Amino acid sequence: VHINNVNEMDYESFIEVFGNVIEHCSLCAAAVWRYRPFKDVRQVHEEICKFVDELPEAGREGILRSHPDLAGRLAGLGLLTDESKREQAAAGLGHLTPEEIARIQEMNAQYRKQFGFPFVICARQNKKEAILEGLKTRIKNSPQAELAKGIAEVKKICYLRLLDIVEHEGIESRL
Amino acid sequence: VHINNVNEMDYESFIEVFGNVIEHCSLCAAAVWRYRPFKDVRQVHEEICKFVDELPEAGREGILRSHPDLAGRLAGLGLLTDESKREQAAAGLGHLTPEEIARIQEMNAQYRKQFGFPFVICARQNKKEAILEGLKTRIKNSPQAELAKGIAEVKKICYLRLLDIVEHEGIESRL
């Protein structure tokens, strides 16, 4: 849709369209509704990022926790959101060997145990090798560093989801 | 469930059970997960309230916006969450005359236009007369006062929803 149409949406339509640009956190879209009219898709993204940055730390952790494991239980059961399903497929996670799935799930479990939130990475900008590598190296980081890194990935995921929704001729598709 | 069982829940179960204690804002439950083990249901409520109070103002507005209108379009279409359905019924909103429905919807629309968020009141503690009266008087308040009032009602709604879920012998059921 064109940004002008976004600005004309009523609240319910806005949430229907943008409610999942931050996975399972429609409160983020609900919060930035006050900033309409938006100049362009970048401004929508900027307001969401600003809101996320101003959350108490527990809220940023909550955002990470709202994300599914990559190649995890929900993926196996076909219970991912449409957005996550597409993104995990784009990373090649739909074609893993049983051994690779077991390896990722084991590392995800370790990561989650260590940090209290799941490993989050922008799957559309990382193929499965990069994801495995990320799990291996990021698990050595401090909790603070991983909270910041995970949230940075959430913002990239959000931007790509926004570009899927809003027309963006002339706007950088890479952050 | 007993609070001990709550403390033993894995994250997915916790969100399934508590995700809607703040209407459509599972981020609130996701955020307070870090405070386990909880002593009792009151502590769950206190942590959620603290999280809500620490949100940027846009976030508190977003919480109000995530609530449905009383006797509104979604109620008419049967599209409310189970919790809202029960609460609106408890207030007697299931037995309104067409004239009463029209009156409430008109006042809801005025309120929403004036404040940018819907009129929120704890329906289980207010019968339809009190709700109509509330709409009439609260619409005269300042936006700041109504944001605060609406959030105070959200906290009451949340507490009653928590009491529906968690065993609470010996704990005040009124805030």
Topology:
The structure is a homodimer of 175-residue chains.
Chain A: H1 3-8, H2 11-18, H3 26-32, H4 41-54, H5 57-65, H6 73-76, H7 82-90, H8 98-115, H9 128-138, H10 143-165
Helix pairs in contact in A: 3-4, 4-10, 5-10
Number of domains of chain A: 2
| CATH homologous superfamily descriptor of the largest domain in chain A | Oxo-4-hydroxy-4-carboxy-5-ureidoimidazoline decarboxylase
What are the segments of chain A in which pLDDT stays under 50 over at least 5 consecutive residues? none
Largest beta-sheet details of chain A: none
* Relative helix content of chain A: 55-70%
Number of strands of chain A: 0
Q: Shape of chain A, please? A: globular
For the record, the CATH architecture of the largest domain in chain A stands as: Orthogonal Bundle
Q: Beta-strand level of the residues of chain A, as a percent range?
A: under 5%
Q: In the CATH hierarchy, what is the class of the largest domain in chain A?
A: Mainly Alpha
| Structural class label of chain A | mainly alpha
Measured between the Cα atoms of the first and last residue of chain A, the distance is 20 Å
The SSE string of chain A, one letter per element, is HHHHHHHHHH
What would the CATH topology of the largest domain in chain A be?
UraD-like
